[in-house]
């Protein structure tokens, strides 16, 4: 029981640190990267992608990225997204191992979508 409580505490701490990091350092930078042509790479399955995604995003799942990364241009900027942010971290690391230098984790696609919508509405004011 004590191990379970410790594990839950660690998971909660990691989640909180991720959310703080995301909101303080990534959101504004990702918006600028996307505005300048960065490609949003949605790494969920095709079925998940079909249920909703950011307009213009490209779908290559975590399960196929090791075979399909050659479809991507290593000179372009990619922002990886998934449903919660875990698979996007894995794909970010895989692409960096394959020599991609400009890969950023965008976390959950729905969070990034909300952030982009807010930036767009702020710019219209």
Automatic annotation (TrEMBL):
- The UniProt record lists the Rhodanese domain at 34-121
Q: Kindly list the GO molecular function terms attached to this UniProt entry.
A: transferase activity
**Listed Pfam families:** Rhodanese
Keywords on record = Transferase
For this protein, the record's CDD domains field holds: RHOD (cd00158)
Gene3D superfamilies referenced in this protein's UniProt entry, alphabetically: Rhodanese-like domain (3.40.250.10)
- Source domain of life is Bacteria
Q: What is this protein called?
A: Rhodanese-related sulfurtransferase
